[in-house]
């Protein structure tokens, strides 16, 4: 500041001096005034232009910051977060702390108790407290701070905390407001609901959040966004503590034993200590002990700075009961129920699901686990229909954006008592063994198991270890001149592919998965004593019907599910293998799309599935496939 003052002082015109013997004449005063103006005007102009430049610079900076808010960058170095209370509890924090409180609106009798999370594309997820009466038969709105509102869509219940979720879009009129507050969830016909205002909580940002947890017999696995930002670069476990409870006074902390990607493992808390903390009389303690599970808020604390990550996850006390399985061994550890399962993450795949499930079931997949990323098509009815036909299939609601790796890590512990091996593919991917299956008259339950290592594959030689993962390369098929989705299925409609394989998918022995649960979407890190085996292209391959008819393919612009893959609408990392050659950053159909990616005509699986599942029709020698309804 002193430097600028000095500049102004130098630029200021000198005070005119006059001989003391006589007063200055009019001409002298005029000449002095002209000289002063000559020196002052450039300085004033310079000052004015500098002010305009600085104003424009800061305006542009604020404008860019506003535009980038949809990516929700959060600097955890400058913001301290409090652990959140459920329902109407608001922890008292020092004035130096900036906390995002999760609760219903205070003194708003029409509001429904919720927690709001701001998702990408300005979508709000509302998590309703479990004891709150709410009915899908009623209609609700999200009421915002400027009295604008948006329609609420009922979603599904979070499977491990049994909390109802709803979504609503943020209106355009609210996006520019700062701060914007958590909306009030109210009945559409209610007249006395008051809009949120100063003192109301802000929504949690989706990219700095504890969103799920799972208790094993030995520890607790916590899923957290915003701590390990870069793939392959993980902060040490000692940087964190697991926090069980509602506040600093009513919580217990345990050590973090693993920190990889979005997956953190913690020691179980001392349950006696928790009970003594939360339940103050003997009757309450006895009542709690009679319950099979205990629900407590769980979060992660960044030790340096005592920053607690916002959380919507709950701790479940591990059950002491023995899991019921269809097979028992003489050892204390029961065998899994199924030899081979398949696991995938899905969004609006109802029209594809029957073909994928029926095909893989017939070749030996015993059980299917779908992580549903908030589908809003008729997925549930298709799953119900398959279940009624005798297929073993279950759906887990997994609403969290860009968490495919974490979802698969979750499945590796969730399915450990259910499945021995798990096939990780998408619903547009089909396992195929060209050499051994091509001439089979009928599918067999032994087929997929023939790709796995034989029982007792560990050799005595110390240089050889057991196979814990089988990897298969992918053939990527193009649109094959199709303009719409083939009603007879993807195996029938898409028959032209790229020449060279791009990626691979895997079948994983869950007992061989590393303690960290580290995975690169479709293959896992193996623990010591296990290795991966890659099949040749003739032994086993995955037909990936990747580049489909444009109306189907363009839906991939919605959002990539991987945590470390850039969304296609972002002009970043244009040479990534995840991106499609010749495609820009907007869902605009490239010229000649229907004929792209057609280098090799490959009808082997088409002919095989016709033989296995097709019934000839009278229409031009066509087939009606088993999965067609």
From TrEMBL:
Keyword tRNA-binding: no
Protein name: Glycosyltransferase family 92 protein
Lineage: superkingdom: Eukaryota
Major site of localization recorded for this protein: membrane
Region (Disordered), start-end ranges: 1-21
PANTHER family in UniProt: GLYCOSYLTRANSFERASE FAMILY 92 PROTEIN
Pfam families to which the protein is assigned, alphabetical: Glyco_transf_92
Keywords per UniProt: Glycosyltransferase, Membrane, Transferase, Transmembrane, Transmembrane helix
Organism: Prunus yedoensis var. nudiflora
Lineage: Eukaryota, Viridiplantae, Streptophyta, Embryophyta, Tracheophyta
Membrane topology term: Single-pass membrane protein
Chain ranges passing through the membrane: 43-62
Enzyme class, UniProt record, top EC level: transferase
InterPro entries per UniProt: Glyco_transf_92
Entry EC no(s): 2.4.1.-
GO terms, molecular function: glycosyltransferase activity
Keyword Glycosyltransferase included in the entry's annotation: yes
Annotated family: Belongs to the glycosyltransferase 92 family.
UniProt subcellular location: Membrane
């Amino acid at each position: 500041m002193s430097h600028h003052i000095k500049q102004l002082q130098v630029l200021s015109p000198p005070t005119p001096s006059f001989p003391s013997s006589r007063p200055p004449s009019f001409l002298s005063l005029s000449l002095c005034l002209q000289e002063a103006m000559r020196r002052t005007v450039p300085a004033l102009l310079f000052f004015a232009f500098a002010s305009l430049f600085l104003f424009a610079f800061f305006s542009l900076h604020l404008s860019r910051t506003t535009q980038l808010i949809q990516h929700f960058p959060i600097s955890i170095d400058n913001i301290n977060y409090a652990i959140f209370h459920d329902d109407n509890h608001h922890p008292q924090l020092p004035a130096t702390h900036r906390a995002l409180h999760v609760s219903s609106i205070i003194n708003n009798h029409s509001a429904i108790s919720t927690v709001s999370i701001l998702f990408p594309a300005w979508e709000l997820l509302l998590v309703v407290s479990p004891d709150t009466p709410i009915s899908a038969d009623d209609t609700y709105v999200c009421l915002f701070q400027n009295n604008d509102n948006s329609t609420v869509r009922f979603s599904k219940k979070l499977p491990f905390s049994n909390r109802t979720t709803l979504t609503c879009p943020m209106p355009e009129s609210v996006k520019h407001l700062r701060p914007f507050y958590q909306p009030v969830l109210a009945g559409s016909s209610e007249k006395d609901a008051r809009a949120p205002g100063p003192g109301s909580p802000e929504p949690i940002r989706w990219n700095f959040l504890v969103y799920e947890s799972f208790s094993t017999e030995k520890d607790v696995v916590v899923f957290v966004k915003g701590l390990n930002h870069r793939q392959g670069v993980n902060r040490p476990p000692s940087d964190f503590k697991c926090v069980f409870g509602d506040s600093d006074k009513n919580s217990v902390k345990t050590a973090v034993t693993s920190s990889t990607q979005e997956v953190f493992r913690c020691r179980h808390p001392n349950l006696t200590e928790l009970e003594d903390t939360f339940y103050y009389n003997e009757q309450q303690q006895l009542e709690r002990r009679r319950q099979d599970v205990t629900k407590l808020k769980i979060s992660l604390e960044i030790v340096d700075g005592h920053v607690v990550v916002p959380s919507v996850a709950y701790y479940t006390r591990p059950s002491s009961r023995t899991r019921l399985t269809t097979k028992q061994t003489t050892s204390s550890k029961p065998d899994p129920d199924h030899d081979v399962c398949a696991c995938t993450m899905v969004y609006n795949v109802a029209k594809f699901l029957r073909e994928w499930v029926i095909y893989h079931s017939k070749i030996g997949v015993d059980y299917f686990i779908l992580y549903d990323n908030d589908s809003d098509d008729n997925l549930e009815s298709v799953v119900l229909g398959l279940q009624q036909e005798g297929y073993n299939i279950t759906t887990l609601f997994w609403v969290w954006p860009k968490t495919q790796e974490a979802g698969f890590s979750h499945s590796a512990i969730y399915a450990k008592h259910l499945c021995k091996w798990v096939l990780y593919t998408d619903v547009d991917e089909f396992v195929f063994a060209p050499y051994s299956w091509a001439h089979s008259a009928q599918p067999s339950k032994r087929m997929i198991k023939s790709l796995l290592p034989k029982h007792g594959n560990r050799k005595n030689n110390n240089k050889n270890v057991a196979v814990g993962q089988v990897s298969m390369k992918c053939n990527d098929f193009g649109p094959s001149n199709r303009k719409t989705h083939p009603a007879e299925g993807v195996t029938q409609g898409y028959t032209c592919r790229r020449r060279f394989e791009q990626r691979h998918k895997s079948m994983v022995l869950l007992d061989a998965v590393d303690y960290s649960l580290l995975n690169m979407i479709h293959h896992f890190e193996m623990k010591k004593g296990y290795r991966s085996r890659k099949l040749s292209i003739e032994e086993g391959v995955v037909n990936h019907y990747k580049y489909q008819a444009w109306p189907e393919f363009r839906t991939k612009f919605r959002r990539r599910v991987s945590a470390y893959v850039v969304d296609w609408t972002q002009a970043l990392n244009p040479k990534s293998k995840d991106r499609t050659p010749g495609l820009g950053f907007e869902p605009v159909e490239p010229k000649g799309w229907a004929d792209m990616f057609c280098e090799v005509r490959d009808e082997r699986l088409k002919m095989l599935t016709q033989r296995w599942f097709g019934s000839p029709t009278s229409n031009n020698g066509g087939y009606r496939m088993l999965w067609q309804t």
